[in-house]
TrEMBL record:
The lineage of its organism: Bacteria, Bacillati, Bacillota, Bacilli, Lactobacillales. Coiled coil: none annotated. Pfam families: YqeY. This is GatB/YqeY domain-containing protein. InterPro entries: Asn/Gln_tRNA_amidoTrase-B-like, GatB_Yqey_C_2, YqeY/Aim41, YqeY/Aim41_N. SUPFAM superfamilies: GatB/YqeY motif.
Length: 147
């Protein structure tokens, strides 16, 4: 089942269940995908769809950080619920151990030995883990393993 078909099915289910939060999130994702499709003037590839959903998740993470910083627990709870729904449309996230193993393997493949090699390692690493790990977390682990 394609992402668009899954979103349509979930949209119908959310309408029937009168789940306003899920309905809102699914509509927002569908709108973002439609906007990206219009902007590209062609159908999106699976990778491009994943990028749109990843962007939706990142926006919610940024909002969550701002709401928590401002002490708005009511809005924080709402964003956390939205993030849980968006997570359903992303691939399973890598565990720290799996991520460390992939990073170490990439470092070994490139013969990286110092922080000077970080850009090269990151450029080779990100396509391998696209959508399955947070970029900030990856950056920290690469720094730790290279230092």
């Amino acid at each position: 089942m394609s992402l668009n078909e899954q979103l349509t099915a979930d949209l119908k289910a959310a309408m029937k269940a009168k789940d306003k939060t899920k309905l809102s999130v699914v509509r927002m994702i569908k709108a973002s995908l439609t906007n990206a499709k219009i902007k590209k003037a062609a159908d999106l590839t699976d990778e491009e769809e994943l990028q749109v959903v990843t962007t939706e998740m990142k926006q919610r993470k940024d909002s969550l950080a701002e709401f928590e910083k401002a002490g708005r627990e009511d809005l924080s709870a709402e964003v956390k619920a939205e993030m849980a729904i968006v997570q359903n449309y992303l691939p399973a996230q890598l565990t720290d151990e799996e991520l460390s193993a992939i990073i170490q393997e990439t470092i070994d493949e490139n013969g990286a030995t110092s922080m000077k090699d970080m850009g090269n390692v990151m450029s080779k690493l990100m396509p391998k883990i696209k959508g399955r790990a947070d970029g900030g977390q990856v950056n920290q682990l690469v720094k730790k393993l290279l230092s």
